[in-house]
Amino acid sequence: MDLSKREVGRVMSLLPENDRSSLASVLADSEEPPSLGTFSPSFEQSTDPMIYDIITVQQADLLVADYRDTFATKFPYVIIPEGVTALALTQTSPMLLLAILATSSWKMRDKQDHLNQVFLKALGTKLVLEGDRDMDLLRGLMVYLNWIHLHTTPKTQQAYRLASIAASLAVEFGITQRPGKNKHQQLNVETFTERPKGLSAVDTELWDPDARRAYLGCYQMTTWYSIMTRKSSPLIYNDYLYICAQSLATAKETPSDLDLVFHLEVAREAEKAYTFFNYTDIQQTQFMGEQQIQVYLNAFAVKMHDWRLRFPSSLTQDR
């Protein structure tokens, strides 16, 4: 119970003070809502009216298309299928849809603010009240978090908090280890848990491609947000990350999968430096000798030279 209260607090603290009471009060101030279409039941039934009170179905489709063309290529950890519609995402990936709309509506700030509140309310409901176990929750949170600077006041502590939640979901869902090593299939009454919705295994070594990308994306974001906030990272490097990245590059399901190994190498090196220089120690109580620093810098220079030789030009040149 204490853990649930803490999780509720972590999510609700992201909402502005005047928006923590009821979402209805937020939507009441918006412009006259467009007519609603017919949408799917269950969880979506509670979020669809909120979305389409704020924007029309046509606007939602345009925002989804804009996200895919403008944003998705810069975040290769969540793949958006070509030609996908808002209605299709409503039925299969409602949290991902909310994150996409909250991101790509940045030119309509008033609507974006409302969509932002809908996302955070839905996150709290699914994460804590419903205890949802769905890959859509993780993938939606990842998209929201990666573009958080577009839809919330920049606060790195909020980003770190959400990154920690994403990391905890990745661990809970079991995608941080091989399918053959997780506990989803144990028939022990005390430990048995159902496999999260939307998660499947290719074999005993690999999860499905979306899950592998999600793990790599969680590692990327937790590493960089931990460095930005000088806090301990909730996800540390392990060899399975490289296996995930390499397997995706080999399969070549999407062009961006080829670059995931290189992104992983850079994040891994950042984690090494972060650990080596004890970056979480803000007071710098332990000083490193000049000789130790020089040894690291020499090794890093060799690493940089290797990257220039191996990395594709799209990753080594400023764009």
UniProtKB/TrEMBL annotation:
Major location category of this protein: nucleus
Signal sequence annotation: none
GO cellular component: nucleus
Recorded GO MF terms: DNA-binding transcription factor activity, RNA polymerase II-specific; transcription cis-regulatory region binding
Cell location: Nucleus
Keywords, alphabetical: DNA-binding, Nucleus, Transcription, Transcription regulation
Protein's name in the database: C6 zinc finger domain-containing protein
